[in-house]
Write a structure and sequence with these properties.
Elements: E1 4-6, E2 12-14, H1 21-38, H2 44-52, H3 57-65, E3 75-79, H4 84-93, E4 96-102, E5 107-112, E6 119-120, E7 126-130, E8 134-141, E9 146-153, H5 158-171, E10 183-191, E11 194-203, H6 221-236, E12 239-240, E13 249-253, E14 259-263, E15 270-271, H7 278-289
Antiparallel strand pairs: 1-2, 3-4, 4-5, 5-6, 7-8, 8-9, 9-11, 10-11, 12-15, 13-14
Amino acid sequence: MSSTIRMNSGCWFPGYSIVDPVSQFLADSASRFILNYFTPEVSPETSFYEGVKNLSEREIIQYVQSGHRPPPGQAFKVRKKRDAQTDELDRSTQLEKSIVVLASGTIFRTGKRKGAPSVPGGNESELLGEGQSKRAFLVEDLNNNRKMAITVSKQKIRPCLAEMKKEAFITNNISSPYILQVRFYARSTEFLGKKIKTGYLESEVCDGGTLKDRPELAQDRAIQAQIIKAVADTHQAGFAHLDLGPGNIAFVKEPNSKLSVRLLDFGNGTSLTPNDGMEEVDAFFLTKIFPGSNDC
């Protein structure tokens, strides 16, 4: 009889010879246990960060395009490695640039001048809108060569992030072409020894302005019908907006040059409960935007 036992893992143990399937299975299981016990587990977050931390912008894009993504719901900000093709541009604009990668695969630049706040796309990015707790910017998705809207939390506090997360939850549970669908991602960092999070909302770009910018559209019957349908779809899904106003009604330019409504900013939204009167609150706000909306 042989005096050794060979496992599929490549480990050898003296003493016995394995010939039957049951003994082989037990030996393989013991080997896997030993390997797993002594091999430290690497989290998906660490694995992705380790994969991109020393890459240039082009290499990060290639890495994501090859199928590597942050874990669901997460975002990573990486100080990009110096690249000979972009060094001159960075020096001319005096921007310190990093790359943000979202779990969706969207990649965009973020940067700042000395002493200025960091914003998506650098300080040259276009500000689309600003609320009490967040700002929306127009950025270029380097992975898919498209324009996207990225909303960033201004305050790294839990209530602000919870509001953004709620907005994403509500919009993704309403089936309507007139609701701006947003996706939420969080990025964890450390500041003064404390873990803090920055929230991002990703959405399509509302390139037709808002009703606040174009008040004359409140008299357009087609626009009125879309707005009412957006609110009705919201109620049908079991939610109320509670912050309807010209600034939260945006437009997207369709290929046929017509405008399509997008109801946005559900940060104050809530779930409906029987007889809570929330639908009437939305209806009241609509009467302030244009007449004839009481029946929505």
